[in-house]
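Handout, section B. The chain below has 739 residues.
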Amino acid sequence: MRGFPVLRMPEDYAASGRRAVRVTLAAAAGFYLFRYGLGQPVAATYALFSAVAVGGLSHIPGSGRQRAATVTRALPVCWLLVVIGTYLSVRTWCAVVGMLLIGFALAFAAVGGPRPAGAAPGLQLLYILPSFPPYDPGSLPERLIGTTTGLMLFVLVETLVLGEPTPPSYRERAAAAALAAAGTSARLSTPPYALTADDLRAAQHSGEELRPLTVPEAERPAGPAVRDRALTDTGLAIRTLLNRLALLPSPPPSPPGPEIVSVLTAVTGLATATAACLRGGPSPTTSYADLAAARARLSALSADSTASADGGHPASTATRESSATLLRRHAAVLEIADAALTMGPAAALAVHGRRAAVTAAPGRFWYASLRGPSLWWYRIRGHAGQGSVFFQNAVRLALALTAARLVAGVDTLPHGFWAMLATLTLTRTTVDETWSTMRTALTGTFAGALVTAAVLVLVGADTVWYAVALPLWMLFAFTVGPVKGIGWAQGLFTVLVALVFAQLAPPTWHLAEVRMLDVLIGSAIGAVLGLLAWPRGAHDELRRTVADLLRRAAEIVVATSATVAGGPSADDSVPSRPSVVPGHRSLQHAVVLAESAYAQYQSEPTPFGGKGRRAAPRQVDWQASLIAGHHALWGSERLAEPPRHRMGRVAAASVDALGERVAGRMLLVSAALDPGDDTPTASLRPFDPALTELATEPPDAPRLYYATVSWLNALLHDLSRIARVEGASADPGSHPPRG
């Protein structure tokens, strides 16, 4: 006998429904406790809006327990905002100045990672609410009690009600990828010394699991602290290791030499130890030392092979080809070892912080010895300028909120904080999105105002009816609004605030009229500021920062090629002092700005416009440009380290020529992405990296030559993915795809 069919709610409604239940429980419990239980309407208002601020307006990523922990840590900040807002409400100009400073600071806190960025809108509301008249410092205890109660109720329900499974952490993902790298290197160190198609797919899948776009936002290591920075470097190093293992040239008919097998075996050991470390084990000190020793032996063997090839004895063509094949494989294995030697210390820092026992090359982990305040200062200073999208967003939102507070104060709008709330929720990072949001929101608000007016006229002053309807409507609004979009959310919220304020003061249908007027004013201010302040959001900034990144990388490529081709210098006589190519700090800063612009771009819809000289090529792989920047930075650091053996004239000339070709290609792609007023409009033709390969390899090429050529050719492959269509002049009606 079959049972009744089970009705299943769609997943998006189920997720928002669970969140709605928690927000409704916290907000309604605090509101009813103070409004009807203790007879304190001020505390009731703050309890309700505090829970709505962190649960409905904020978008704190993570599971319920993670959100609860974030709100608990932010509790002192919430108290401070309520206190400052209360005392600055004495004069309009005080509240306006406070809104400018606090609005910018809270929005700019997004540089600290996804959790501060997600909590910022709710914290803004906690300042907006008390910054309006009446100026009543005597009610501050009630305000703080209500705020604290609402937040703690939210923490309680997030922890206990409808718990969500916590996704695997980034450390766990990195540990799994490290084990995959260990298995891959183990197969390369045993017969038949090659990878199957299944092995290659598994390595690629493991690397993809560490991409930020595949990782839940709460688990991304995006903060400025040592452990977050080190975990980011760990993921990048593991992905590099997996890619290098997958690209290792096939061995000749004879098995690889014992030195190569020794390095790959040591890589297996270090990758296994790194995975154990990421899961809470000790630092991989012994495995790191074993790999460093094996790498040194292989490097010395490669140098000896180069010296014997340059000994002056004639060699046959077959011998030269065999030697070149061997050196190419040596260079590839050394790159594998370098990636693994970066992975181990990074993982140790990510788990044990400054207590990590493994040390790496000087300068690689510059942040390891710095304290938290210094790292925060570096992060803030790096984004303190109009080249950062975090700075742009903070300025735009702060100016919009300030203008809304000024208008509300000068015109003495009733419920003027609704205008600021509309500015806060409707201001977007592009003017097109702001206008679209404004139209949809006004339509929804108008519909909600009609429903509100009808309800207030029909029900009148029957407070019991509003008290019964509030939690039901709140549950419905917070379930449907996030799924149906901003229009539904604004309309439903319009009715919700009417149900709240109808229990605080005698209601009239004019409440709906005031709500409509406030939303209109707030959204108009947001639209105007969106038009005036960086109206294209991260789209233009992404092209500009990526173009600057490629220009910086081109400088590094030329300088590194010249340094390598020039052989040892006087400074290289001191082994403890690595040779650093000038410009590394500038390239590293350019990479940081491009990454932040790319992260913002990923959250925006297709940018507006597309006409004129600012149009971008139709096919742009933005992530490939970031990979090229990292590759240029790390490869340059590795190749510039002493000791360096002097090249023959032919090999040096070949490295110089190839480096100049790569740099020239970088400059061409940079100009195509961000053309100037007088940039030539000729199309950027498809580029085949194979065209850069020399017809014959120099007979005097040392190991360093093959390592440099491998690095430059890899950069060319990255560049070929950035702009890969014929004709870089964009179709006026087209837009670049989503990275």
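Note. The two ends are 53 Å apart (CA to CA). Compare this with the example in section A.
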